[in-house]
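Folding Query — how this chain folds
Tokens — whole-number codes for backbone shape
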Amino acid sequence: LVRRLCLACCKPREATEQERSLLQSVDSVVIQEPVGCPLCMGTGYRGRIGIYEGLWLDLELATAIAAGSTERELGVLAKERYRLVDDVREKVLSGKTSLNEVRRYLSEDFKR
């Protein structure tokens, strides 16, 4: 779970070059950032939102799991996969949370 931006006070701004790189976007991107207001008690956030990952199983993948394949090997074999980092990017780009809130999920480890 990550904190959801307060819709009453968040403000848009242009993403920096480094932020666009983290989001893997070459085009200009507008992201939201927290401000703080009475509704969110000055934090800029109200509530939480889940970050999800999905992996759809087929016979080949099920066989690999049963054989004890590593997570990395399973990731290569997966035909349909929605990675955690993909959901993080979507949540930031849609203004549901801030880049600072999810920055840890956009580390180099997740770009594989």
